[in-house]
């Protein structure tokens, strides 16, 4: 896949925050948990289960949480589609976004090792693109095939220059499937 060696994986067909997903990192396809663990503390000071922070805003990549991963550990997240919630609160449904000219495309990611879950990754998001207007105010940074090496191995400013809204056609599949399964 993408000229990388594939390690054994346990990623599912659909990936959710806090669950395993596939990334291309260091020339290998690897399984990592989606979301950097955010340590939480309860009202009485007890440690709570960490929350997965699954998206990193491109304009915040210099913040402490993301800085070292962006500088040292960029990855690509292969996908066939990404889901977003659409609709009124309490009645949101899934809208699947895919690229008609790329059955499998890549999104910018960053990764690190964590004490809580082992290797983890986060998807890099930027301003909404034309294809996602009205669905979400942010969109994934889609990395074109010719820019994959620049994202993974280029200088910081070269990688940062790729953090722009996607400008080509997208396919939207609006479903009646509830966003939250009860």
Automatic annotation (TrEMBL):
GO MF term set: lyase activity; peptidase activity; single-stranded DNA binding
Enzyme Commission code(s) on record: 3.4.-.-
Domain of life: Bacteria
GO biological process, one term: proteolysis
InterPro entries reported in the protein's UniProt record: SRAP (IPR003738), SRAP-like (IPR036590)
Assigned keywords, A-Z: Covalent protein-DNA linkage, DNA damage, DNA-binding, Hydrolase, Lyase, Plasmid, Protease
Top-level class of the enzyme under EC nomenclature: hydrolase
Family: Belongs to the SOS response-associated peptidase family.
The protein's name: Abasic site processing protein
Annotated source species: Croceicoccus marinus
């Amino acid at each position: 896949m993408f000229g990388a060696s594939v390690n054994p994986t346990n990623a599912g067909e659909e990936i959710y925050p806090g669950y395993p997903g596939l990334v291309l990192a260091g020339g290998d396809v690897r399984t990592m948990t989606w979301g950097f663990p955010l340590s939480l503390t309860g009202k009485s000071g007890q440690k709570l289960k960490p929350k997965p922070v699954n998206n990193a805003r491109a304009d915040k990549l210099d913040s402490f949480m993301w800085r070292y991963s962006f500088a040292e550990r960029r990855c690509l997240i292969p996908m066939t589609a990404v889901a977003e919630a659409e609709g009124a609160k309490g009645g949101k449904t899934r809208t699947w976004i895919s690229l008609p000219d790329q059955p499998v495309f890549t999104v910018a990611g960053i990764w690190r090792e964590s004490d809580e879950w082992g290797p983890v990754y986060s998807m890099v998001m930027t301003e909404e693109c034309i294809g996602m207007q009205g669905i979400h105010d942010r969109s994934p940074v889609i990395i074109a095939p010719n820019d994959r090496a620049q994202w993974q191995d280029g200088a910081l400013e070269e990688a940062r220059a790729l953090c722009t809204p996607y400008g080509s056609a997208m396919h939207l599949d609006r479903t009646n499937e509830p966003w939250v399964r009860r």
